[in-house]
Amino acid sequence: METQVTAQIHQATDALHTTSLISLVHIHKTYMMGDVEIHALRGISLNIQRGEFVAIMGTSGSGKSTTMNILGCLDKPTRGHYYLDGEDVSKLSRDELADIRNRKIGFVFQGFNLLSRTTALENVELPMLYLGLKPAERLKRATEALEIVGLSDRMHNMPNQLSGGQQQRVAIARSLVNHPAIILADEPTGNLDSRTSIEVMDVFQRLNEERGITIALVTHEHDIAQYTRRMVVFKDGKIRKDEPVGETRSAREELKNMPLIADEDDEEDDE
Amino acid sequence: MNLWGTFRIALRALSRNKLRSSLTMLGIIIGVGAVIAMVGIGQGASASIQAQISNLGNNMLIVFAGSSNTGGTRGGFGSGTTLLPEDITAIEQECSAVKAASPVVRANGQLVFGNQNWVASSGIQGTNEKFPEIRAWPMAAGEFFSEADVRNATRVCVIGKTVADNLFAGSDPVGQTLRVRNLPFRVLGVLSVKGQNQFGQDQDDTVLVPYTTAQKKMLNITHVQAAMVSAISAAATFTAEKQITDLLRQRHKLSGNQENDFTVRNLTDVAEAADQSSKIMTNLLASIAGVSLLVGGIGIMNIMLVSVTERTREIGIRMAIGARSGVIRRQFLIESITLSVVGGIFGVLVGVGASIIISKTLNWPTLISPVSIIASVVFSVLVGVGFGYYPARKAAALDPIEALRYE
Question: In the A/B pair of chains, how many CB contacts fall below 8 A?
């Protein structure tokens, strides 16, 4: 009886994951902390379609970071299946996951995570280096990506010569260059002041709207989640709420009405 | 990800921290440089001893006549009269380990040619026709005197280069007549240049005459003062020494407890010992230098381990954006190999430079062998692989999530 139900569920989800870009099916994740078993995720199912802009929310310990790690193929679920772009990636080897991360996923982190003493251009070229692209192609794509995030004039700057907002935009450019299926942004505005946060959200919104790029963004700030179009809220290892954002805020409109702070981008407000 | 790409990544990573990279290399530079300089000094010493050995002659032994004893006054080696030409012939014929032997009769005296006169510092030596073979001393011009000359005690001579220069000043001495102790001698030939012996004596400042001539026409004696003996091989010099001693004791009718009235000196023995000790010295110097190379290698490992820890976040970033573990491992391995190889190449330059400076300033002979250069470069590659492997493996084994979270 139970197996029949499970089979039915699997059929249903199979149908779903063929159309969804991302399909998490009954994901469990348990860690051993010494002798104590910690259930980080207790049966998560989540579908993300192409072109969506999703905010993943929750307090710390809610399971949102674990979900993010699994979505990013940095971690494997203990149980359950993860279909990314139609492929079940939940049982892949370490090296296969590295390749998936390289080709299908673009990461943007809270701490920017750029290589120090490396120019913006070289940072953006890095994923293509691991993909094995020719230098000419790398240069072309990196230049384009930096143009998209509005940093054409900062290509040869080192990270410590860039403001926090600029560094995050370099990181976004880096996440774009291998044309990933999805960009995963983990608290991308966590280290930025409010105006810079909105600027970064503007970049994400434009990528999503103008180029149809799928974005999943982890945040614990309700304000930031308002710039996305769907909110998934985690609590105690389960999805508590999954609903569209009623009235998505437009970062572009808000920036227009904001008083400009002179040369804010040139300040070295980080490190 | 091909190897060249990984190499580029490693090079960029190294160039991002130039000071540290060069300090790390310094360990290898000093190590390799020390090995090359030390081996250079050792082999230079060994080569100069080898040169002296071949300068001495062919596996040579010298037999001195015993000392004379006239009413309690002893005359020193060679002053005795018991060593006879027949003894020398017997040595050559009866000792199986002996290839050739020649009597030695020494005399002093003035040499005169035309209006030039000269006293040879290495004296007038009476020998037989075997001299060139025993001393491994070929002719530069003309020929050596023959067995017939020795048998007939003819007044012929062969002169060394120094004598030729001083008496004949540019003209050809061969065929000229030279006055030795006021007797006319025909010059048959000129010896090639031999140079100084290890005591600084000019061996080319000499005149050779048949020993019979020296005995009869100069000294009026029938005995000889010494003999030069050539053994069949370097190893056979010990056997030859024993055979000569036994033969001479028998010929001189010495009973069991009587002392030898002669002395046998094994020159090769001394030289071989010197050569041995210089080889031991070379090995010693090389191993001390090798230790410093090893320390340089440990330095690389140390720095690479620190570097892996310090760059944990960087490794996390690289893994997150798609670097496979193997690529990370190769990157760190290539970094350490690059450090050691570049260090090795600079080390070779430093080592060669140091050898040249040492030989110029201290006047020590140094010999830089390609083998020591190749060996130390190969060794430094091995150091890079050996000491880079563990840190590289450690880097590759990092968990990307942990690495990204690392502060």
Answer: 66
Alpha carbons within 13 angstroms on the beta-carbon side of residue B31 total 32
Q: Per the CB < 8 Å rule, is B322 touching A117?
A: no
- Please report whether residue A24 resides in a domain: no
Chain B nearest CA to A114, separation (Å): 8
Instruction: Locate the domains of chain B by residue range.
Output: 3-53+273-405, 60-232
Using alpha carbons, select from B373, B374, B340 the residue that is nearest to residue B26.
Answer: B340
Is residue B372 scored above 80 in pLDDT?
yes
Task: Check residues A7 and A234 and name the one with the higher pLDDT.
Answer: A234
User: What ipTM does the predicted assembly reach?
Assistant: 0.88
- Of all residues in chain A, the one with the smallest CA distance to B314 is A115
Cβ-defined contact of B16 to A116 (cutoff 8 Å): yes
B-chain CB neighbours of A127 within 8 Å are 321-322
Q: Could you report the per-residue pLDDT of B280-327, keeping only the tens digit for each?
A: 888 888 888 888 888 888 888 888 888 888 889 999 999 999 999 999
* Residues A65-73, mean pLDDT to the nearest whole number: 93
Which residues of chain A does B327 touch, with a Cβ-Cβ cutoff of 8 Å?
Answer: 130
Per DSSP, helices labelled H in chain A are 2-19, 64-71, 94-104, 120-131, 135-148, 164-176, 194-211, 222-225, 251-257
Output A245-251 pairs: Cβ under 8 A, ≥24 positions apart: A245/A55, A250/A205, A251/A198, A251/A199, A251/A201, A251/A202, A251/A205, A251/A227
Range of the domain at A261: 50-74+94-266
Number of domains in chain A: 1
Judged by CB atoms closer than 8 Å, whether chains meet at B5 and A132 is answered as yes
pLDDT at residue B198, as a whole number: 64
Chain A positions with Cβ closer than 8 Å to B: 69, 72, 74-75, 94-95, 98-99, 101-103, 107, 109, 113-118, 122, 126-127, 129-132, 174, 178
CATH number reported for the structural domain that contains residue A137 in this entry? 3.40.50.300
Evaluated on CA atoms B391, A114, A124, A22, the torsion sign reads: positive
For chain A, how big is the Rg over CA atoms in Å?
A: 19
Average pLDDT rounded to a whole number, residues A23-39:
91
Q: Which of B87-91, B176-180, B184-188, B294-298 has the lowest mean pLDDT?
A: B294-298
- Interface check for B317 against chain A (CB to CB < 8 A): the answer is yes
Check if B133 contacts A (Cβ < 8 Å). no
